[in-house]
Amino acid sequence: MHNSQPQTNLFSTIIWLLLIALTIATFSIGEVDLSGKNTMLMLLVIAMIKSQMVANYFMGLHRTRLLWRGIMFGYFVIVGGSIALAYLMGLK
Amino acid sequence: MGSPSITGYPVKPLNMQQLNDKDDLPGDFAIWIFIFAEMLAFGVLFVAYAFTRAKNVELFNESQLTLSRTSGAINTLVLITSSYFVVRGVAAIKRGLSKQCAHWLTGAFLLGGVFASIKLVEFNTKFAADITMSTNNFYMFYLSLTFFHFMHVLMGMAILACIIVKARRGGYSPQDHTGVETGASFWHMVDFLWIILFPLVYIIR
Q1: Could you tell me the pTM of the whole model?
Q2: Residue B26 and residue A68: Cβ atoms within 8 Å?
Q3: Could you report the predicted ipTM of this complex, rounded to two decimals?
Q4: SS3 of chain B: helix, strand, coil, percent, to 5
Q5: Phi/psi at A64 (nearest 5 deg)?
Q6: For residues A55 and A72, is the Cβ–Cβ distance under 8 A?
Q7: Cβ contacts (< 8 Å) between A86 and chain B: which residues?
């Protein structure tokens, strides 16, 4: 069982609202039909911020040892980095 | 100082409390093995999608335009909100509020149903237009990735349903709520993966 202090409901609500705002930003980028390297990087950065917010504050990994947070962050770096690399290859 | 072992060297007794301290992952450790394995499987699919796209950029961009970005965005908002409800459910049980925990988790379960319904409409639209996995590489990835994820949503809903029933019966307490945290971790993983899937398949072009 996870014994640490539960985060406050207010904090969880703020994280939720930030996730909603970032999702609307992602959708808006799609709706205005932006494309290209910079747009792709922006979308990946937004996805990285969102995924780390879910991992750290919804899953509660911010209270665990660095190893677990490192795995979740490393996962995004490897997967997101590979997606970016593939996208750049497609530009050529 | 520990007691001597059969090797003659003192052995420090294993402190179970230390294993359950704040450094631990929330929930049952076994679910985390499953979570990491599922993330790996999705990660391979995400990267395979990206590299296949690199060889067929025009085809992928054209096919992507047939997807409903609005449905994808609504489903993202729905999953994020359901994850938030699960967070509130876990917070409630930590304060010993079983009924409140069950209410929050029921909300998350219902939002899971909304997600699944929207996804089914999307699948139905594609199948009605004679689009299948063999139509082209984009649809092969789109249908397999989203269907694989859809199955995880259904599995998460089944887990949430079991936890809700137990919570309603008062089966969890502030001292013993590993089951709630285990189910919550799985549900958040479903959300985590969709957060990558949505921009990758619906938006990036």
Answers
A1: 0.89
A2: no
A3: 0.92
A4: 75, 0, 25
A5: -100, 180
A6: yes
A7: 47, 50-51, 53-54
B100: tokens are 């409140």
One digit per residue, the tens of pLDDT, for chain A of length 92 reads: 454 455 689 999 999 999 999 999 999 999 998 889 999 999 999 999 999 999 999 999 999 999 999 999 999 999 999 999 999 999 86
**CB within 8 Å of A38: residues ≥ 6 apart:** none
In chain B, which residues have their Cβ closer than 8 Å to the Cβ of A78? 43
- Give start and end residues of each alpha helix (H) in chain A: 9-31, 37-53, 66-91
Query: Smallest Cα–Cα separation from B84: which of B109, B101, B108?
Result: B108
Q: How many domains does chain B have?
A: 1
CA–CA separation, B189 and A61 (whole Å) = 12
d(CA A89, CA A91): 5
Would you give the end-to-end CA distance of chain B in angstroms?
A: 63
Structural domain including B77 reads 27-203
Query: Are A12 and B84 an interchain contact pair (Cβ–Cβ within 8 Å)?
Result: yes
